[in-house]
Fold:
Amino acid sequence: MLLETSWLYPLKGIIYFARHPFLYPLLRARLLPALLLSVFVFATLFIWSYLPQVAFLAIFHGRQLAWINGAFLVLGEGAAVTALLFEAFFVDETLVDVFDATLIKEGCRDLVATSRMLHPEASDPVKELGKPTTSAVYSPFSFRQIIEFIVFLPLNFIPVAGTPMFLIMTAYRAGPLHHWRYFKLLGFTKKERNMYISNRKLQYTGFGIVALVLQLVPVASMLFLLTTATGSALWVVKLEEKRRLISNTDDLETGPHYEDNSP
Structure:
């Protein structure tokens, strides 16, 4: 079931975000810098690098495919630059708040409480969020991911199949990073985290592909960073339901054994 539906969660996040106004203040606080940064980055790349890249791709793809794949190439470059700048300087704390507030709303308050102070008397999940008591990072800054992104970029030179290959290879690494916060809340060691990810590699790749495609949308890519964090939290809710059900079942099966020794 998770294999079939994990890729839907970035899209579910858009709908959920739109239907829950308590999340809007987190967007408003970052909206203007997000718009300005996205417009500047994408405008700069399309003005100065689009035509040269199309000309180069035409050697391998022909003129018609070069225009299309050139656009994907520039969009991918723009998404990488804006995501890197925005997450580094503006948004990671906001992504944590979006993620945690969604978990609280959906009944996983105890999970969030392991990492930050909460104010249960508050009027909505966002206002309930207090200061983190441990390091709170939604997705870690990764030089390896940036290097791999640059290494995978030439895949776009391959006619027709190149762009899908680029998306899959990039999403293969990026998908699990959307649950970095979840792994920290569970207190996973590096070994436990890697084992958990390896058992769900296809699910995380599917999630990562859709999340990456949303990041290729000019200007709106920053909005989709927030909605993808919402979708990531919604997936966690389902994973937690399954994990807790299994845990409760194991507790029942391994409960205390009583013997009747009465005469």
